[in-house]
Automatic annotation (TrEMBL):
One of its GO terms (cellular component) is plasma membrane. The keyword Lipid metabolism does not apply. GO terms for biological process: cell surface receptor protein tyrosine kinase signaling pathway. GO terms for molecular function: ATP binding; transmembrane receptor protein tyrosine kinase activity. Residues 69-89 have a biased composition (Basic and acidic residues). This is Neurotrophic tyrosine kinase, receptor, type 2a. InterPro entries: Ig-like_dom (IPR007110), Ig-like_dom_sf (IPR036179), Ig-like_fold (IPR013783), Ig_I-set (IPR013098), Leu-rich_rpt (IPR001611), LRFN (IPR050467), LRR_dom_sf (IPR032675), NTRK (IPR020777). Residues 313-400 form the Ig-like domain. The chain crosses the membrane at residues 527-550. Keywords: Disulfide bond, Glycoprotein, Membrane, Signal, Transmembrane, Transmembrane helix. Residues 60-94 are annotated as: Disordered. It comes from Cyprinus carpio (Common carp).
Length: 576
């Protein structure tokens, strides 16, 4: 029989024939058995855990031969029974647990026992030692193993972080597991499926919700069909292990949009047919490990497979380079060869020019004709692609359309960190730019300069930067764009500052962002006014306080009469 570490691939029994049949971490000693019998139910939302503990308790009780008696005779009989069973191993398997939650708990206990480093493995697993601290750590480990993120893991699988594992051979799944919400499925990066006899296909929508999937393993199942759109929603998939399944053919179109680093296919009954030849070319030296089955049932190395009517397509596109003036016509010719006869198709950007397609009946030649080529198609990439069941090939050309400059945007000046007059210009070749201020050439320098920030959709986007402009920079700005095929010009008025009240002063004293032409007077010295008003207020307040003190100071509690203002004192009194 096989124990916990082998339960993923076989169905175990409850008792072991000998100690060698069980992993040491699963041979529970009599002390650990007694500990297991003392397990009590916990307050857990996972009712299957309580049921699992009950099953383990009942089976342990049966191993002891019934309940323990409290009489001396029963105790002696129990000791004799234990002494005879001391060396008989007792195996606990994951299949005895009613669901995957307890399987994870037993796996955690197994790991803990293997790390105990000697002694009684069963004691290490369940008790963690004879002390209360050991029991506490064992319970914490067991509860953590039973915890499921969001309690959303399917019953037949186990979930750990961003991984889903479905390996129970007795209860097979038929399709990919589904979690409770799409958000939980988007967090999954690893799916492992093994030993599932009912798993037979990967259909178009099965993996739509696993958008961040990176690693997928499906091994030792009856997988025989994979849709060409099976991985359309999994652009991050890099590792794909499909070993030991029933795949007889596999199309390259299934993986055309993926950046697969590892594709493992050994152990599949691949047929020696043209549809599988792409594996030989795509995998290169790794294809030497793959075998294919001929019609007579003989297996040969895929790397040696040669089929006369199975040839990878080739494609040519003429002309190979296009440089032309706008308004002319263009014809592109694409030719292909391969067996079986490839299909030709064109891929382009969104063309602004009028076009038409012509295909020959043989399917090996196609023409794309552009009429009155637009300057908006400058830089457009046109691709001719040929494909059959062996693979694909393509050829491309970029359109280089020559046309005079076009100023599509020249806006009013805006104030940011500096003043800026935004513009957008197109032209091929790239036009040269210069500015006029009031119809006079403007010299650029560190304070006034042209800046290009971006090139997109065939246009140059930039600004005329002005650092701290004054009234002398007001006026009409003209942008000139010129190349060998022509010139374009646009004008805009900019007003940065009103003229100062003193025409002899050329240095700016203040900025006025308004557009009103009414001259403004010099600003008042508000600080001086505030100082004068403050001093007057302090003086008046002090005068009022002095009057109050003199008024109420006559009847002082010390018996001293205060001085009365404006009172005539007799001369005789003064003489005394």
């Amino acid at each position: 029989m096989k124990c916990l570490n082998e339960l993923l691939v076989s169905s175990p029994q409850m008792r072991c024939a000998s100690s060698s049949d069980c992993a040491p971490s699963l041979q529970l000693s009599r002390l650990s058995r007694a500990r297991l019998l003392s397990l009590s139910y916990v307050s857990s939302p996972d009712a299957s855990f309580n049921a699992s503990v009950s099953v383990l308790q009942s089976r342990q009780s049966e191993a002891y031969g019934g309940k323990r008696s409290t009489t001396d005779a029963s105790r002696r009989q129990t000791r004799e029974t234990r002494s005879t069973e001391r060396d008989e191993p007792f195996c606990v398997s994951r299949s005895d647990a009613p669901d995957a939650g307890v399987q994870r708990a037993l796996h955690a206990l197994e790991t803990r026992g293997l790390r105990s480093g000697g002694g009684d493995p069963g004691m290490s697993l369940l008790s963690g030692g004879f002390g209360m601290a050991g029991w506490g750590s064992g319970w914490v480990l067991m509860l953590l193993a039973l915890w499921r993120p969001g309690a959303a893991c399917p019953e037949l699988c186990t979930c750990t972080g961003a991984r889903i594992s479905c390996v129970d051979a007795e209860r097979s799944i038929v399709a990919f597991p589904m979690l409770q919400s799409e958000a939980e499925m988007e967090n999954i990066t690893d799916i492992y499926i093994a030993n599932q006899s009912s798993f037979k296909s990967i259909n178009e929508k099965d993996l739509d919700s696993y958008r961040n999937l990176r690693n997928l393993t499906i091994t030792n199942t009856r997988l025989a069909y994979i849709s060409r759109q099976a991985f359309a929603s999994n652009p991050k998939l890099q590792y794909l292990n499909l070993k030991e399944n029933n795949l007889s053919s596999l199309s390259w179109r299934t993986f055309r949009h993926l950046n697969i680093s590892y594709l493992l296919l050994a152990g599949n009954p691949l047929q020696c047919i043209c549809e599988n030849v792409w594996l030989k070319q795509w995998r290169g030296e790794e294809a030497e490990d793959l075998l294919c089955v001929e019609e007579g049932g003989m297996r040969i190395a895929l790397s040696t497979l040669k089929l006369t009517n199975c040839v990878l397509p080739t494609v040519t596109l003429k002309p190979t380079k296009v440089t032309m003036r706008k308004g002319l016509n263009l014809t592109l010719v694409c030719n292909t060869a391969g067996m079986p006869t490839p299909n030709l198709n064109w891929s382009t950007c969104k063309l602004n020019s009028a076009y038409e397609l012509q295909h020959e009946h043989s399917g090996q030649r196609s023409e794309l004709r552009l009429v009155n080529v637009s300057s908006l198609d400058n830089g457009c990439k046109i691709t001719c692609r040929s494909e059959n069941m062996v693979g694909e090939a393509e050829a491309s050309v970029d359109l280089d359309i020559l046309f005079p400059p076009v100023i599509s945007k020249l806006m009013d000046a805006i104030s940011d960190h500096h003043w800026c007059i935004p513009f957008s210009v197109s032209g091929n070749p790239e036009p040269k730019l210069r500015w006029l201020l009031n119809d006079n050439p403007m010299e650029e320098g560190p304070f006034i300069r042209t800046m290009i920030y971006d090139y997109s959709e065939g246009e140059y986007h930039g600004c005329l930067h002005l650092d701290s402009p004054t009234h002398i920079n007001n006026g009409k700005y003209t942008l000139l764009a010129r190349n060998v095929y022509g010139e374009a010009r646009e004008e805009v008025f900019a007003h940065f500052m009103h003229e100062p009240w003193n025409e002899s002063v050329t240095d700016p004293l203040y900025y006025d962002p308004t557009t009103d032409d009414t001259p403004l007077g010099p600003p008042e010295d508000k600080v001086a006014v505030y100082v004068v008003v403050g001093i007057a207020a302090v003086t008046f307040t002090g005068f009022i306080l002095m009057l109050v003190i003199l008024k109420f100071g006559r009847n002082s509690k010390f018996g001293i009469k205060g001085f009365v203002l404006f009172h005539n004192v007799p001369v005789g009194v003064v003489a005394r």
